[in-house]
# Entry
Amino acid sequence: MHSKPDKSMRMHRVGKVCPFFLILCFFHGKSTKKYRIPCFIITFVAQKLRMERLEQIKEPISNEFEVFKQKFDASLQSSNPLLGEVINFIKQRKGKMMRPMLTLLMAKLCGEIKDPTYYVAISLELLHTASLVHDDVVDESDKRRGQSSVNAIYDNKVSVLVGDYLLATSLTNAAMTGDVQLVELVGRLGQELSEGEIIQLNNINASDFSEDVYFEVIKKKTAALFAAAAEAGAISVKCTDEMAKKACLFGELIGIAFQIKDDIFDYYTSDVLGKPTGNDMREGKLTLPALYVLNTWKEPSMIELALKIRALEATDEEIARFIAYIKENGGIDYATKVMIKYRNDALSILPESISDELKLALTSFIDYVIERTK
# Structure
């Protein structure tokens, strides 16, 4: 008769059969070493899943996405040696280009992709890139998604001017659509991004912990970018006003889920992300996990510490203690549930008549957003 395996052996077997268990261990603060599972398994499985998601997203727009990338690169050219060098630096560090993919997918959903779709997708991506370059200067950040930021390699003056150049190029591409509605959309997005940053800066001085203000900031920053990308795709192929509004809402919901995921990342150390645990708090920012716990438990000592964090007066040890308190009292679980709700709300907007290929692509898009590791 075989003896019953001890707990560590049972957990080891679970880890071999279900690598997702290891990811859950990570997010719940348990040690995977305890179960003798090599960490590379987590990385391998997560990377494989991400690649599969990306392939599903790109499938309906594979040819169009290649055309977009060629046009995007062609739009960023300069004979000035320094400007050309910085532009190449930015090109080499561009991400997955999720927003242009969303623009192309929504255009494909509503009609046939033509030049206006490409031009507005380029315009929005350049505006987004310009805002990141400027944000890194404002935040005095030397990292962007684990890579050196422009201002870390060059100085702030160069970064601001390059950001201005990207913005001007964005507006040029918006004009090339020949559609006033799209030009207005790009201009409105620029206003919202600036307003969101100002609201966030002003909120650092607030004495309350409002989730409403938190979501207002998200809607005018991250969510505004996704909303504009989706709406622009629909408008570029002359869809109905009703469909354009639904596309806008779809993008906004995805953008909110995207930002909540980013905020959850801040509670875990990751060299891949290029930021240590509590980076937002070191800038005086309190996000959804913290806001929920503070408003739910109303612990006086933690409220006092939260205000100290906002005033940029907290030490690293105090921030670490605050993070542990938020995690132990349900902050991450709450934020995750809210993120998943936005994911489900976004998918409920898709029309019933959508093709299986596009439905899979758009479902994979938002699942990629909430499952990503950076």
Q: What stands out?
A: The longest helix spans residues 241-265. The longest strand covers residues 143-144. The two ends are 48 Å apart (CA to CA).
